[in-house]
Amino acid sequence: RAKSQGLGSAVEFSQDIGLQVRERSHLLRDLRMAFDESQLFLTYQPKVELATGRVVGAEALLRWRRDDGYLVPPDRFIPVAEQSGLIVGMGSWLLQIALLALQRFRAAGFPNMHMAVNVSPVQLRQTGFLAVVQETLRQTQSEASALEIEITESVAVGGLEPVIEILTRLREMGSTVAIDDFGTGYSSLSYLERLPADRLKIDRSFVQSLERDDHGSRIARTIIALGRELGLTIVAEGVENETVGRLVTALGCAEAQGYHYGRPMSEEQFLEWLQVHQKEIA
Ligand code: C2E
Ligand code: MG
Ligand code: MG
Ligand code: MG
Questions:
Q1: What distance in angstroms lies between residue 197's CA and the mean position of ligand 3's atoms?
Q2: Whose CA is nearest to atom 4 of ligand 1?
Q3: Which of 7, 41, 90, 248 is deepest in the core (most CB within 10 A)?
Q4: Which residues pair with residue 43 across a beta bridge?
Q5: Ordered DSSP codes for 189-223
Q6: pLDDT digits (tens, 9 = 90+) for 58-76
Q7: Taking CA 145 as the corner, what is the angle to CA 180 and CA 133, rounded to the nearest 5 degrees?
Q8: Paired strand residues for 44
């Protein structure tokens, strides 16, 4: 009986994997089609300076809306895009779209805003990544300082040296680098010290725990203190209410993002947001 149970679960297990593989290949097929049929688009979320409420930049966040209206979460389709290499072409495309949107935001009376773009490790390590960035900056007539690249600590997998080299060159060009979601992945305090960066974004799971004052909140406090020690500008992610906004300000975060300030919005909505809300925040 034990034996047959064992066999049963082995069969189930392999069926399960078969299902996952099939789902993945369907998702990849659909994603390729989505890219060709412009089901992909960007949304923009404001990043504000806590002391003044001034908007300092926007983060471009990718969206996929299927024909039936269903929004596929980025956390589901980005890994598929990464594993298939599709992220490289998608990444170049969205860099251009994001920088064009930024031109409109800047022209609307916010000439110092920057655009933060999430870059996957595969994309960053791709030969020619820097050339694509330079070419896109040139084509869109953007200053290098208008662009911030967001990376996660997972870039360290596969060797830190080439990554340090690329990030250093980006910063020499005048662009900035943010370390995203720090503390959620393969965190190593030494990465934080070695990665050339300007901003450190505290993951929303830690930020939100500040209100509960639990284990996560102690991690948040520690990461903030460490980041400040290293001279990084600290950004709190996922601030959803005023209480948390005050807490992160008191702890030394300079900037914040979150639903409390603004949700990810279409380009048009963001332009309206800039006009209406930016003076109300502080
Ligand atoms: P991320 O870069 O850390 O982005 C922040 C995520 O938090 C976004 O989720 C955003 O919508 C969400 N968020 C912002 N404020 C709040 C808040 O106050 N409350 C809550 N609950 N959530 C908030 P989203 O857009 O689903 O993106 C998830 C992840 O997908 C991103 O995490 C990023 O890692 C990845 N991603 C999104 N767009 C791109 C892209 O263009 N390229 C790459 N490589 N990755 C991307
Ligand atoms: Mg990000
Ligand atoms: Mg993040
Ligand atoms: Mg994330």
A1: 15
A2: 61
A3: 248
A4: 61
A5: HHHHHHS--SEEEEPHHHHHHTTTTSHHHHHHHHH
A6: 999 999 999 999 999 999 9
A7: 75
A8: 60, 265
| Residue of 40, 93, 118, 270 to mutate, ligand 1, most atoms within 8 A of C-beta | 118
Nearest to 115 by CA among 201, 47, 210, 29: 47
In the structure encoding, which two tokens stand for residue 223, read together?
């990461």
Closest to 105 (Cα-Cα) out of 266, 281, 279, 282: 266
Nearest ligand 1 atom to alpha carbon 150: 2
Q: Are 142 and 103 in contact (CB under 8 A)?
A: yes
Ligand nearest the Cα atom of residue 181: 3
For a substitution probing ligand 1, which of 47, 61, 154, 210 has the most ligand atoms within 8 Å of its CB? 61
Residue nearest to atom 26 of ligand 1 (CA): 74
Ligand 1 pocket, CB under 6 A: 45, 60-62, 73-75, 78, 94, 118-120, 150, 180-181, 204, 237-240, 257-259, 264
For the CA atoms of the chain, what is the radius of gyration?
Answer: 20
pLDDT band at 226 (very low <50, low <70, confident <90, very high): very high
Looking up tokens 């999430």, which residue turns up?
118
Residue among 130, 36, 38, 55 nearest 92 (CA): 130
pLDDT of residue 58: 98
Residue 137 C-alpha to ligand 4 middle, in angstroms? 25
The alpha-helical segments, DSSP class H, found in the chain are 2-36, 74-84, 86-107, 121-125, 129-139, 161-173, 189-194, 204-209, 215-229, 242-250, 267-277
Of 83, 96, 153, which is closest to residue 123 (Cα–Cα)?
83
Task: Tokens 């300000």: give the residue.
Answer: 249
CA dist 231 and 225 (Å) reads 10
- pTM (two decimals): 0.92
